[in-house]
Amino acid sequence: MTEAVTGRHMPGAPCWVSLMVHGLATTQEFYGTLFGWEFRPGPQQLGPYVRALLDGKEIAGVGQLPPDRHLPIAWTPYLATDDAGVTAESVRSHGGTVGVGPIEAGDAGRMAICSDPTGAVFGIWQAATHPGTALAGTHGTPVWNELVTRETSVVGKFYAAVFGHEVETDVSAGPDLLTLHLEGRPVASVRGVGAALPRDRGPHWVTYFEVGDADESARLLTELGGHVLRPPRDDARGRAALVSDPEGAVFTIVTTAG
């Protein structure tokens, strides 16, 4: 079901996802074919940058890293805030780090790139003219974000303190799984995987993108040069596969149950 997202996102809710890559043109070609995205230029404060669209509505951002920057290629979720400066100070005071910003992104809003006490990177976004992702529930849209970390207790308290999330333990879906709520509505999850945490990545956020058919999208992704890290299987969210794009950015494709 296609759902238009209007107005501002609730503070603390995921509101945007972005990806910084080395090959902007080839990345657009990959996601354009996989998800049906079209692209138009976005704010250039961080260098070459485009916004991905579906049906004319903004979905995600993709930027190009400077040639000399060898950072991990990863999808980064942004959490909404009414005041990026106040939230950045709260991140610091609760043991996190602010790596970039807050900075102005043209007239679109203010942003900062942060990491939680375990090192997982996320963004904060104070909307002005750009409220964030404007479409949900259809092929190619972000539908969920999950933090994969070693254990959940400390990091769950961090997000609750900084963003006001209500933390709920979900024993039915795993031995160490928390769901983050705002006003009783689930907005993200935190999964503790212990020693199974990838050594080369550390704690990290994973974005779920809706697809019409997870098995078919996994096949197409492989043809386009991506990699299937965990083949499609049925889980609590639907039929999902953990995958990566040609530059190594990890994400999940999911055909939502029901």
Automatic annotation (TrEMBL):
Stored Pfam families: Glyoxalase_6
Domain VOC: 13-127, 141-256
InterPro entries, A to Z: Anthracycline_SecMetBiosynth (IPR052164), Glyas_Bleomycin-R_OHBP_Dase (IPR029068), Glyoxalase_6 (IPR041581), VOC_core (IPR037523)
Name the record gives this protein: VOC family protein
